[in-house]
Design brief:
By secondary structure, the chain is of the alpha/beta class. The chain is about 40% helix and about 20% strand. The protein has a 6-stranded mixed sheet with strand order 6-7-8-9-11-10, with helices on both faces. The longest helix has 16 residues. The protein is globular, with a radius of gyration of 19 Å. It starts with a helix and ends with a helix.
């Protein structure tokens, strides 16, 4: 449903905005959040851009990062803008409860399976939530300065896999051209996003590769990381980002998965597909969601048990 005009009207008429994106935030969630926060601040609005988890190390250079808050605001006189997800539970326990208590909640999301949160929802199946924010700023006739443009570019670059994923289209490059004209340096951002990893990431990757299993006659790739692995590598959640995407690049693999236990008993599964299997639908069976090509879900329990169940379910897709 296209509600961008109504959302633009609210952004013009209201004054206090609580912005949030999903836990374990990625480039699209953070870039979209900061781009919109900077634009609203430039328009004289009060903004509270919130994250439940710390911004990943490789994104701490983003313009506007100093605006990010890790605690909730006081009072209820806020319009919530939820970006890159459509379920309160994905905002974190405290933020989810806070948002559910507000009367005005706007959702801007681009996932096939998005949830039901929001009094006003704009869910558009496109290459990045940043594309929605770009269009929203156009409706507001808000100029793209280098800081806003950089955040939007990072968001688009991240969710298109550096313009490699299937959702990338002519509109992607139209927007990117406008962002470059506004002051973005593509080579600088590419270096920051693809050549700026911690040693801990490679420690985790070594472990995940050693455990990698190729199943279903080469069509499924699965690996896992335990809480002990993160501890031993002195790694953060974000240090294992995109391992599942990497496993999908193996010739013949249709679906890849990485099972991650960052805290004991708290398990996150990242799923990637070449498109033959809709991993958003698959993840929904476990209470998750996402896109046809990239999705995930969370579970509590024993790592070994979930890994065994997941492996059997993925193999069954090709039996």
């Amino acid at each position: 449903m296209n509600n961008l005009a109504e959302i633009a009207r609210i952004l013009s008429n209201k004054d206090n905005f609580f912005l949030a994106t999903h836990v374990n935030p990625d480039g699209d969630g953070i870039g979209s959040l900061l781009a919109l926060a900077l634009a609203l601040k430039e328009r004289g609005k009060t903004v509270w851009p919130y994250l439940a988890d710390e911004i990943p190390d490789f994104l701490t250079w983003l313009p506007g990062r100093e605006l990010i808050r890790y605690e909730l605001p006081q009072g209820r006189d806020w319009v919530a803008i939820v970006l890159d997800c459509g379920e309160a539970s994905r905002l974190g326990k405290e933020a989810g409860a806070f948002v559910r208590g507000l009367s005005n909640v706007i959702v801007c999301d681009h996932h096939e399976i998005s949830g039901t949160l929001g009094s006003i929802r704009h869910v558009e199946i496109t290459f990045a939530t940043a594309a929605i924010i770009f269009k929203l700023l156009e409706l507001l006739k808000h100029p793209l300065d280098p800081n806003i443009a950089t955040n939007l570019y990072v968001a688009i670059f991240s969710d298109t896999g550096g313009f490699r994923y299937q959702q990338t289209n002519a509109e992607t490059f139209f927007m990117v051209q406008k962002l470059i004209e506004a002051g973005v340096s593509p080579s600088d951002i590419a270096a920051r996003l693809t050549e700026n990893f911690s040693l801990a990431r490679f420690c985790l990757l070594k472990i995940a590769l050693a455990r990698l299993k190729i199943l279903a006659e080469g069509k499924v790739a699965v690996s896992y990381l335990s809480a002990k692995d993160y501890e031993n590598c002195k790694a953060k959640k974000a240090d294992s980002d995109d391992f599942a995407t990497m496993f999908r690049t193996i010739r013949g693999v249709e679906v890849s998965a990485l099972v991650k236990e960052y805290h004991p008993g708290e398990i996150t599964v990242s799923l990637r597909s070449r498109g033959r299997v809709n991993v958003a639908t698959f993840a929904a069976q476990f209470g998750g969601g996402g896109h046809r090509f990239a999705a995930g879900f969370k579970q509590k329990g024993l790592l070994a048990e979930l890994l065994s169940l997941l492996t059997k379910e993925l193999e069954a897709l090709f039996s």
